[in-house]
Prior knowledge:
By secondary structure, the chain is an alpha/beta fold. The chain has one domain: Flavodoxin domain (Rossmann fold, 3-Layer(aba) Sandwich). The protein is 33% helix and 19% strand. It contains six helices and five strands. The protein has a five-stranded parallel beta sheet, with helices on both faces. The longest helix has 15 residues. It is globular and about 50 Å long. The protein starts with a strand and ends with a helix. The relative contact order is 0.23.
Amino acid sequence: MKDIVIISSSPRKGGNSDLLCDQFMKGALEAGHKVEKIALREKNLHPCMGCGACESSRRCVQKDDMAAILDRLVEADVIVMATPVYFYTMSAQMKTLIDRTVPRYTEISGKEFYFIATAADGNKKALERTIDGFRGFTDCLDGVQEKGVILASGVWKKGEVTGNAAMEEAFNMGRNA
């Protein structure tokens, strides 16, 4: 049994990337894994201030929900990062989360990662820049493995991903995590 944390950065509950998170979770639960989905839209997260206080303390001076999220990222065996694509990059919510891992990012090691991206653009190749952004993050971590990528293109309106092949792909990835 693996401990899986799914980070949904969709600002829309039931948005396309959020629905793919739910499908991944269904598959992972069916396989008997421990799964927690964290919806960033429900959390109080502030951008990194670049103050450097965490360099010595390994703790952020900001009092928001990030410390608890960071604890889960460090504890998990598997991390799923999902984002809608805005202007060919990840959401501000996801970028904020990544930036705020600085106090303990060296402890996010030996993990398996899955990336999920959804976009209105019908060309899947257009989503690769977003995945490159995720890889920029994981390149800074030790011993991580990229286990899967789901790109759902041509989905803009809320719920439009329903019926898309990415839904089954997400379920199967979760089941095989």
